[in-house]
Each structure stands twice: as C-alpha cells, then as structure tokens.
Amino acid sequence: MYTLNPAAERRLLWLLALTQFTIIMDFMVMMPLGPQLIAALHITPTAFATAVSTYSWCSGLSGLLAATYIDRFDRKRLMLTVYLLFALSNAACALASNYPMLLAARAFAGITGGVLGSVVMAIVADLIPVHRRGAATGTLMTAFALAAVAGVPAGVLIGARFGWGAPFMLLVVLSGAIWLGVQRVVPSLREHLAVAPPPLREVLPALWRLLTNRHYFEAFAFTFVMMVSHMMVIPFISPVLVANYGFAPDHLGWMYMAGGAGSFLTSRAVGRLADRWGKHRTFRLFSVLSMLPVLFITHLPTLPFLAVVAFFPFFMVLVSSRMIPMQALFSAVPAPAQRGAFLSANSAVQSFGTGCGAWLGGLMLGADAQQHITGYGMVGWAAVALVAVCVPWIARIQASGAEPVGASLPAAPAATPAKA
C-alpha cells in the first residue's frame, strides 16, 4: 500500500476532485443547456435525452473496455494521456454545428470521460486506506457540488451570452490547467505492476468471469438500478421548468448554484458519517429521505422562482448523499488484485445506467398542444420505486472478504518481470 503524509493526501484528493469536477461538469452542463440546444438545433426532448444518453453509453463502453488494460499501466501516465484526449473532445463539442456532429462529439467525450473516471477511482483505492475511504469519497463527491455551485451556473451564463458551445470551450481551458497539476502532484503508481499482467488473449474471458462472478454481479446490478433511478429525473428538470413554468433559461444557474452550495457543505460530513455509522445504514437513511424531494420536483406546483431556488438544495443534498456511502462501500467490494478492473467495470455500469435512465425518462415524456412537457410525474414515481427496491437490497453488498470470490482475473506467475 502506498503511503502519503496528510498534507500530500489532501492535495491529491482535491486535485482528483477537480478532475472529477471537469468530468461531471461536462456531463451536467448539458442539462441546463437543454432548452437552448432544443431551440438552436430544432430537436425534441427525446432527441435531447438521446444526446445525454450517447455520452453515458459511450462512457460505459469505454469504461468496460478499460477493465482490460487499466491495470497494465502506470496510473499517472494513463491519466495524463486520457485527460488530454478529454480536453480535445470538449473542443469538438464546442465546435459542433449540427445535431449529428454534436452526437459524435458527445460520444468522443463519453469515451474519454469513462476511462478517466475509472483511473481516478483506482488512484483513490490505491492510495487511501479503506477505513478512511468514506471521507475520501466524500471529498471526491464535492466535485458534484462544485460542478453545480460553480461550473453549471458559469456554463449557463456563458452559454446565454456567447452561445451553447462556450461552456465546452471553458472546459478545455480548465482541463489544461488541471492537467498541469496532475503532472506535478500525482505520484507514479506502479505497485500493481509487480506481477506481469495476463496476455490479451486471456483478458476477455477474465472480464467475463469478473462480470458474471456472483459477488460482483450483484454489485453491478445494484449500481445499474440506482443510476437508472437517478437519471430518470435529473436531466429533465431544466427543460420542464422552462417549458411548463416559464422560467428563463439564464436564471436556472441560480438554482443549480443553491443546490451545489448545499451539497458542497454537506458531502464531506456525509462521508464521515458513513465511516462512523456504517455505509449500509447511511445509504438507507438518505435513500428514504430522498424520495420526498424527488416526488416534489416531479409534481411541482406553481411556485415563484425564488421558492424553487430555496427548495433545490434539499433535493441536491439528499439525492447526492445516497451516492457517497454507496461509492465508498463499492470501493471495498473487490479483492485488491482486481480493484482497478472492478472499478472500471463498475464505472461502466454506472454510465450504462445513467444513459438508460435518461433514455427511459425521455421515452416517458410527451408534449401537449401548448408544448408543455407531460409525463414527468410518472417519471418521479418510477424513480422512487427503483430506490425503494435498493433500500433492502444494499444489505447483500459486502466488502471483500465477507464471502469467497470464485472467479478472478488471470495472473502471470509472480516471478515474471513486469513490463514497463
């Protein structure tokens, strides 16, 4: 196990949180830009949902394929390479001039973002002891809050002033600055290369064994269901508020800023609570509490915009807080030798669930004669039903060592020297 002094560990975690910030902002900024994209590209809410899903599906596929090679490279070198490609993908999004070009650019962004997210979680699992991983995950989850409190509002304002492509160009600039920080702060991580990786002809069968292992498969299925529930609701908040309630698109940044501030102030405390009180119980608590704001936002009565801004922190805090103990628990599910592959596969499953959730939510929506979006209330009930299934199910997800894991990734003999 690598060791860092407390100051170096804090610097590393906050740098990784900023990396996650750019990944999350890249995905999240599409949601408040939905009304502008629908108008500028003359597309329907379902087509917009497809653009959101394309990113997620490609992210999932690339993350799944990353499980075949992520443990073959120095974590730092791989992160720097993929982050550079991620910045280029956002430049392509900013320059897209029509819907097909946007879909292609979002697919490229998803491919790079999926691998990058897997590498970040593998670095955390390599460097942070399991008894502090809940707090570390809470620090990483502040990226979600930062994206909401700073990234998304900035993207909305810049998009309203300079066009919807401008927020993606902002991400190019931010990614370049963080890339330089990664070069300086992240150590070379090669301990997992002490044993030579298996030949490629064994990788795909090993990946299949990883995915179908009973201990791991249940964790993957749980992740998928939670992300479907999560993303059935969130991408459509902005389009519904604009189409059904008449809120101005450039005002939505205040709502996301308020929600992000609430999450930012609470995410680390939730991580510490998960370490002290237990990941399972903390997940159950916030999952049950989150049902009320989900149903409220999907059955929203006519309210002043300031009332919606005041409510949104409760929604953001409770919905995001259920993900912190889940992520911390899942980082301890795999055996150490399979950690990178498992986290890559689980990140891929998250992305598949995200894409399917947005797609299913879009399919459940329609439009009336006044071009109001219909069906959002049913989306809310479906999302809550899926969370209700997960509340008792979490008890079956256990850390590594709680039960034997039968299938493992192939490994070369210990005497074989590792490849550089």
Give a short overview:
The chain is mostly helical and 420 residues long. The protein is built from 16 helices and 2 strands. The longest helix is centred in the middle third of the chain and has 30 residues, at 133-162.
Largest sheet at a glance? 2 strands, antiparallel
Coarse morphology? globular
Question: What is the CATH C-level name?
Answer: Mainly Alpha
What's the mean pLDDT score? 80
Secondary-structure element series? HHHHHHHHHHHHHHHEEH
Number of separate structural domains: 1
Beta strand % = under 5%
- The unreliable regions are 402-420
Strand segment count: 2
Task: Give the helix proportion (percent range).
Answer: over 70%
What is the name of the CATH superfamily? MFS general substrate transporter like domains
Distance between the termini: 20 Å
What Rg is obtained from the alpha carbons, in whole angstroms? 21 Å
Tell me about this structure.
By secondary structure, the protein is an all-alpha fold. It has one domain: MFS general substrate transporter like domains (Growth Hormone, Chain: A, Up-down Bundle). It has helices spanning 6-28, 34-41, 45-66, 75-95, 99-127, 133-162, 166-185, 203-212, 214-233, 237-245, 252-277, 279-298, 305-321, 323-331, 339-363, 376-393, and strands spanning 366-367, 373-374. The chain has a two-stranded antiparallel ribbon. The radius of gyration is 21 Å and the shape is globular. The two termini are 20 Å apart. The relative contact order is 0.17.
